[in-house]
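agent> call fold_tool(seq_1)
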Amino acid sequence: MLGMITPITVLVLLTTSLTLMLLGRAIWGKPWRYSSYLGYFWAFYLAFTVVELGWFRAGNWIVAVISFLALREYFSLIDLRLQDRLAVWAAYASIPFMFHFVLLEWYGMFIVSIPVYAFLAIPFLITVQGRETEGTVFSIGIIDFGLFLFVYCMGHISYLMLHSAWQAVLLISGVVVSDMVADWIRQGCHSEVKRCVLQAAVAIPLVMALNAALAQWAGIPLIHALVLGGMIPLLVQMGRRTGEYVEADLGIREDTLFPGRGQILDNLKSLLFTAPIVFHYLRYFLK
């Protein structure tokens, strides 16, 4: 069946369907639980589509914009000192630099741009504009942590697109399936341990089947597609749990989610562990 349909046709149809769903939600204004979630993941599928059409630069910058929005929302939820603003601006400025290294296919600089150069620059810049020492360690940790999660980890999606748009599709689709299963089971299970086990147990076979169907288009041997099918739901669980603790510490509540107040971070938390680990798994075994 897959041989009868071209990959680009499937991507265009998928992106168009998501676009129509979101437009319908905006026009009719009817509440829908997953409208915001699918809105952000629609942006990823849009990026994959334009990459598959041969315009990688546009797809790369779509992911960069998502990273910027996530980092901006994160900083808006934290009470940083005035003297930290130079470091915050440097964190924002690191986004185009890192994504530019993806465009250059400069893996060596991409992989160290944030965890070496940005992480060393941020502490120094925090000291430049003020003499207040109290809170310095807190500010360094807060800014570097956000930069790592919402820029560096997300940047791996762009580098994965550089190798294959369909490998990125496989990653994001597995995350979406795992998230939907997790949300469905959460509604009817109050035991945290039981909930996590059920979420993984249900999602793993579904993601494995999905990966097996997409393996040929993604250029991944079936055995690795199946291994990733087992890994992705577990990594999603790790990202969701970490994200929930971060949200709780920032005062984000599920009943008050909206853009700028935790919605972006909530929708992207499942990618924080999944994107870099899947990327490095594929790079190690398929390079």
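agent> call fold_tool(seq_2)
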Amino acid sequence: MLFLGCDGGSTKFEYLVADAQGACVAHQTFPGMNLMQDGMEEYARGIRTHVRALGIDPGTLTHAAFGVTGYGESRTAARDMTAAVQTALGHGRCTVCNDSVTGWSGALGMQPGICVAAGTGSVAYGQDRHGNGARAGGWSLRFGDEGSSCWIARRAANLFYHQADGRLPRTQLYSAFMREFDLQDPLYFSVEFEEAHAKTAADLAAFQRKVLALCHEGDPQVIALYRSAGEELALLVQALIGRLDFGDQPVQVAYTGGLFNAGAFLIEPFTEAVQALGAAVVKPLYRPVIGAAGYAARSDLRQEALRTMMKNLANEA
């Protein structure tokens, strides 16, 4: 048996092919795609290119699972994404779902609990003791996705505006952004920022790393911004606890996504806010792409064999 897992988002598409024992047969990463931004034709072409590049015959796959950003988030997205995957594979032995589902699958090993994903965007997904699932957040990179890398980048730009015109005291952020864009007048900032860092979601998310550097310099407003991000992400947990049934046991809350590389600046306020809800923060077991491979195998392997597969795959890939 062979299982394919895909973790696909705006920043990257990562693929794993594994056998039932968890031996890695193929593992590749490609640039990100977004159906809403790239259009159906380009998106479908990208999936076909990825599958061919894996170097395996798709017909040999027992099952595949694609956890992809944007699934189900428009009237036709679920249908179009499923069609793109089935065409690329040449068969219908596949599951296509939102990447929040495969993120949960990896982070919690498909056990009851909630996984908060914060990278380019932000979303949370949970399953309870009855197998019921629900998600919160992930509404829009432009207008929602609070607590994400894009959200932080936009909020940091807003801090610059407030510092430039006197609504807030100037901190390291102001001088750092003036240097970054070689500005003589702060009024030029918006044009320069949008041209250099806001053309795509991936560009905007990458700018977050420059903002994070100001935390290490002790900028109080930026440190407070990351605290706000952690608290926003905890609100996703609160929403799901209210919608799912976890019984009397503390809810296990895992986290995943590149933004958590911010370390204590984000994880500490997130943990404090989650613990205040009576839930417990746990480190993720596996990466989302391993979660996708496990999700692909869930109907073909018994629970113990599935756990062994995912554990072995984590040691290899």
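agent> summarizing second result for user.
The first strand starts at residue 2 and ends at 8. Strands lie at 2-8, 12-19, 24-31, 63-68, 94-98, 113-118, 122-127, 133-137, 252-256, 280-282.
agent> awaiting next instruction.
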